[in-house]
Amino acid sequence: MKFDLEWLREYLETDADADTLAERLTHCGLLVETRDEVDSTEVWDIEVTTNRPDAMNHRGLAREAAVAVKGRLKTLQHELEETTESAQELAAVEIRDPDLCSRYVARVIRGVRLIPSPQWLQDRLERCGVRPINAIVDATNYVLLETGQPLHAFDLDRLAGRRIVVRRANAGEILETLDGLERKLETDDLVIADAERAVALAGVMGGADSEIGDTTIDVLLESAHFDALSVRRSARRFAIHTEASHRFERGADPEMAPVAADLAARLIAELTGAKVCRGQIDVCPKPWKPTDHEFGISALGRFAGLEISASEVERILAGLEFAPRLDGDRVICTPPSFRGDIERTADLYEEIIRHVGYEAIPAELPILGTPPGRRHPNWQLIDRGRDAAVRAGLAEVVTWAFIEPQVDRRLEDWPLCPGKSVSLVNPLASTQAVMRRSLVPSLLGAARETLNQGERSLALFEQGRVFSVDHEGEMHERERLALVLSGGGAGWPGVDRVGFSELKGVVENILRDTAFPDIGWRRGGAPWLEQSEGAELVDAAGRVIGVCGRLGSEEAARWGLKQDLLVAELDLDAAAAEPVLPKFRPLPRFPAITADMTIEHQLDLPYSEIEAAVWDLAGERIEKVSMEARYSGKGLPAGHVRSTLRLVYRHPDRSLTQEEVNEAQEGLRSALSGRFDVQFT
């Protein structure tokens, strides 16, 4: 935010030079980022945090500077000369929604002329990044930059009934704003209306129907206080950012409205030769109420680790206009109306300490009154899942926790999405209106963006929470881990193109490293997954704790994906709270013999059943069973596949012979033929 040093000094009595001012302001939390020489002064670009709207104007910054350099803030003079004609006889103001507009002050100025502002005023506005327009509008902008109070000037003759009505907009009501665009209003929007129609979007932008023009003679000057949330909601909906909305969104000073009205009215009269009518029209249905705060100076010292004198505390609080009253160690003060950010004792401590100087606080660690806490058990589980995914060669991504409602509705068939979705009352965008029930949609979006950038191999994962509401209306949050693979081997040796087998291997490694209980595999996951390459992971109780497979062609088309993707999602909450420590087993003394077996079977026969049968029929000599290859296509009947199993034989007390292994293989083939409708090749 830009400030004119020459203008700033008009409110400040101090001998401090520009360097000292900039240094002390920076030390007390108002960072002077740049200093540019312009004409005979300097223009400072200062970072003012969003909780300090009181410092987003020259007088507010001068107040901070006066305390920082031990100077004095000059009194603000706002008296003006008035005519005998009463403003209340020429216009009227009505507030219909006091929750959104607590105060509305209006001044009537007659006989204005639409002329350019004098050069000194134009120069000051331009130094602060505001474009001069005409003397009337420039006067309102000048007072805004001076005091932080937004103002707006209406052409009084263009207000129907010469009346101001502050109300909520009617559904579908149309307002053409000063930028020439027609805005379709909603009932959440607060508008300034006349007796017939809306003439301004409250706190954001005026309307074209009542703007100051060449024919303007009489002006109604608005100086009001609007609800910050209401202004923020309307400004964001219409993508409008103005100097006024910037202040109102952060909280303007309700007590500055009548003062700023007088300052602007006096300036308009001086610049245009107009006359200010007697009195203000001041409607205030919800007056500001001051609140006292109390603390001890000794408690402040213990908090800061630094002894601060009572006189220094009084000087700082008085300079910030907190009206301190000291009674021994006790301090009672009343934060002013422009400091709505002061809510608790710690806020008062901060005000004092930042002006004393953070550099004065000794660099010592505080003595902890309580023992250090322990990590939440979920964090250990999350760490195990994330580490397992990284060890599997996957790169982590982080996506939004919100998804599009249309995508969420398609998740009704996803096995890991029980319950109802959680809709947001005030979403950031229409595409982020629902809390996610699954990590897969947002991960698919990340994969699509990566592929669109020209990448052809993906190995990504995300660990995060999903949200749902059960049938009793109770909210649930669960930890999940999802992954997506596509294209080449993503750095895995010997893998030219990932398929279901590679995905299954990655998932099994994660299950093992994350300490999941014994998991069974069964066909499932449709319609999101291809029927022939989709699986559900179930625990001993038959509950689905994971889904894994190739993304279905129909779903891939919805996401605009032009190459195959393999996806998986695991419910981390189903893992053991603590991993089981591995038990040492002596290394085998005798060599193993490996033998392959290729089985031709129907596609409907799951591999898990074949593997279970092998363990059941092969006896104790089998040490390991794994799938080496799976083939379907040319040379096989429709609906048939060939699965190649690799079996490891070993005897604990002696070396096996090849004849014994061949005999065991033959017996196993015979037993499998009797149990299933299979053939061997």
Give a quick precis of the structure.
The chain has about 675 residues and is of the alpha+beta class. Helix content is about 30%, strand content about 25%. A hairpin with a 4-residue loop joins strand 13 and strand 14.
Key terms:
single chain; 681 residues; alpha+beta; Phenylalanyl-tRNA Synthetase, Chain B, domain 1; Phenylalanyl-tRNA Synthetase, Chain B, domain 3; 5 domains; 7-stranded mixed beta sheet; 6-stranded mixed beta sheet; 18 helices; elongated
CATH superfamily of the largest domain: Phenylalanyl-trna Synthetase, Chain B, domain 3
Determine the CATH topology of the largest domain: Phenylalanyl-tRNA Synthetase, Chain B, domain 3
Structural class comes to: alpha+beta
| CATH architect. name of the largest domain | 3-Layer(bba) Sandwich
Strand order of the largest sheet: 22-26-27-31-30-29-28
Spatial extent as radius of gyration: 37 Å
Work out the strand percent.
25-35%
